[in-house]
Amino acid sequence: MRKRNIFLLCAITFLQGMVFYSAVATLYRQAAGLSIFEITAVEGAGVALSMVLEVPWGRAADRIGYRRTMIICNLLFLVTKIIFWKAGSFAGFLAERLLLAVVISGLSGVDSAMLYLSSEGSDAQRNEGICRAAGEAGLLLSGIMYTLFLSGQYRWAALWTLVAYALAAALTFLLAEVRPEDPRGKRPRLLSMAKDHFRLPGMVPLVVCTAVYAETVHCVTVYFSQLQYLRCGLDARAVGVAFLAVSAAGLCGPLSAMMTGKWGERFLGKALLLLSALCVSLLAVTGHGLLSVFFIVLLSALSTLFFPLAWILENKLVTSDDRATVLSFNAMAGDSLAVLLDLVLGRAANASLPFSFGLCAAMCLLAFGLLSRFFCRAV
User: Fold this and answer.
1) How many domains does the chain divide into?
2) Are 334 and 207 spatial neighbours (Cβ–Cβ below 8 Å)?
3) pTM confidence score
């Protein structure tokens, strides 16, 4: 049952990675009549609602079970794609994004808990790496298929995305429950649970480290990379190739467990963060197109290797039976930091792209310091 769960979770992640319109999501909304301001307003509302619902959903999942929660959320996920496919106004896209926030906050922590509890000991990190790679493979395949067969056909791209999500929702019904049986007695209060959770040795530095590094990498590889390509004079075709290369780098997640076994958690984690800082520092001083693509692809690969390691370290620290709830605490804390970091890095990029890369390198070094702190306290 547990091995079947792992296969199903990877298959679901692959299918949900197949967002055929991902490369033109902004253009899709603009074609429906939304302005850039309306698009950002919709995204902001979704992020805010997702943060509010994180912990309540985690609490609910620990009450009703992880399998049932995933079934509800993935069915709602399918509904969001139906709305997106048909949406033609600000109200339609806002409804889609708000419902998506309900889904994201519901799955946050639950899919992680189910994968961890379905894995056996040392296999957990490898399974997380494979699952992440499956999602990236789905995104890469759908991007290639859009380029070859659906280019410019926005509504058809949304329809094929809907089909992929329908298959993912169907597979969710085949999952087996892995949540430990509910212990008898009164559940602890959320505030008390949060205090106990964040008092675990090393939990706070690990959560902050992962959040800072994740948002820094996201800003560099998704937002600042486009500006860097323009700065280097790359044409549209070269930018498209660079996007595929960065996506392909996300497939190396399964190597994380093997490299951890060879070099150890402490050495590998620190090395990945230091190399990331070096990559971003070099982006600040280079104006060469090929080198810029290389450094951004390398950063994507380094982060892909780091996140399964951070995931297993986080899950090993959890002591509560209410795993989905406490992982939701981590997600909410990470999201709050991400919002603040986005504002800082975005303002820096407006002032100077090289300066923003320098600041991103500093954030990687901060993450390195926090990970060092974690190993001092927790190991």
Assistant:
1) 2
2) yes
3) 0.89
Q: Which of 151, 178, 205 is the last residue of a domain?
A: 178
**Distances from the Cα of 52 to the Cαs of 9, 229, 267, in angstroms?**
26, 36, 36
Q: Which pLDDT value is given to residue 346?
A: 85
CA-CA-CA-CA torsion sign (225, 228, 230, 235): negative
3-class secondary-structure state, position 229 = helix
Note whether residue 264 is domain-resident. yes
342-to-32, 91, 219, 227, 228 alpha-carbon distances in Å: 27, 26, 8, 16, 18
Q: Are 206 and 81 in the same domain?
A: no
pLDDT for residue 226? 81
Residues 265 and 327 occupy one common structural domain:
yes
Same domain, yes or no: 207 and 331: yes
Asked, for residue 283, whether it belongs to a domain, the answer is yes
Encode pLDDT of 90-120 as tens digits.
Answer: 999 999 999 999 999 999 889 999 999 999 7
Identity (one letter) of the amino acid at 356?
Answer: S
Tell the residue number behind the tokens 């498209």, with chain if given.
240
Query: Which pair of tokens denotes residue 139?
Result: 């995104």
Cβ neighbours around 188 below 10 Å, total: 14
Domain of residue 159 covers 2-178
